[in-house]
Structure formats: structure tokens, C-alpha cells
Amino acid sequence: MNPARDAVDEANAAIGAAISTQSLPGDLEDLLGDIQQDLLDLADALTTGASPPPPDRLQKVLAGAHTAEPPRGFAVLGGLSPGGGLLKLARTVVRRAAHTAARGPVRDYLDLLADVLLTAAFRAEEHERGQVPLGLCIDVVRPTERSY
């Protein structure tokens, strides 16, 4: 039994669930799909002792992130987006995996991934905030006496 590998598998499942909500921007879904493949490699590395995936993709995502700093408590409080909530859950599980893993490249990868997932959750929330619910026509239709 390998607690770090188990946590990586759990985080991968949470990321898959976030993608399944179909509430994330398309480019974020693509990035998360690539990260899922990396997590399969990372789980294998935790079992066999092989090298973890290179952190280049994660470093590039963090360097290119143009989001504001998430507000205090963002990582654990509820929000607008089911996908964002699942990404917060995945981040928490990745943090657990990092604390369980030995110091070195695996832990470094997991620490970067936790930051990427928090950034992705924040972006998912921002995306959701910009969506207009279907059927919302407040400016077009005014309530009438018969509209109850």
C-alpha cells in the first residue's frame, strides 16, 4: 500500500469528475486532460521509483496565469461552479499526496500541481461568473398580473 499513490489516483478521479461537469472552459479541460495523463505516469513513478513527469507544463501554466490572487479561504469555501469545487477537492488531495511523498522531484511536482489546480479552480469560478443563465430575460419581459 502506497498512500501517496492512492492520493494521486484520488486526485486524478476528482479532476476527471471536474471535467465531466462540462462547466469548464475548453482550454482548461484540455490542460486538465493532459495533467490526468501525467498523473497516471506519476502514480507509476510512485510504484516503481521511476522519474515523475517533468514539471515544465505546470511551470508554464503558473507563469502564464493572469488571474487575480484568490481571496482568503477560496481553497476550501464553496463557490459557483461544480467543476471549480471539484478542482478545489483535487487540490486538497494533491496536498495530502505531497505531504505523504518523500522529499524530492515527486513532492516538488505535487506542490506545483496543487498551485495549478487552485489557479484552475479560480479560473473556473471566474468563467462561471461570466455565464448568463438560460431563460433569464429580465430586461425583455416584465411581470404582469397574469404571470404568477
From TrEMBL:
<keyword id="KW-0067">ATP-binding</keyword>
<keyword id="KW-0547">Nucleotide-binding</keyword>
<dbReference type="InterPro" id="IPR036451">
    <property type="entry name" value="CblAdoTrfase-like_sf"/>
</dbReference>
<feature type="domain" description="Cobalamin adenosyltransferase-like">
    <location>
        <begin position="7"/>
        <end position="121"/>
    </location>
</feature>
<dbReference type="Pfam" id="PF01923">
    <property type="entry name" value="Cob_adeno_trans"/>
</dbReference>
<protein>
    <submittedName>
        <fullName>ATP:cob(I)alamin adenosyltransferase</fullName>
    </submittedName>
</protein>
<keyword id="KW-0808">Transferase</keyword>
<dbReference type="InterPro" id="IPR016030">
    <property type="entry name" value="CblAdoTrfase-like"/>
</dbReference>
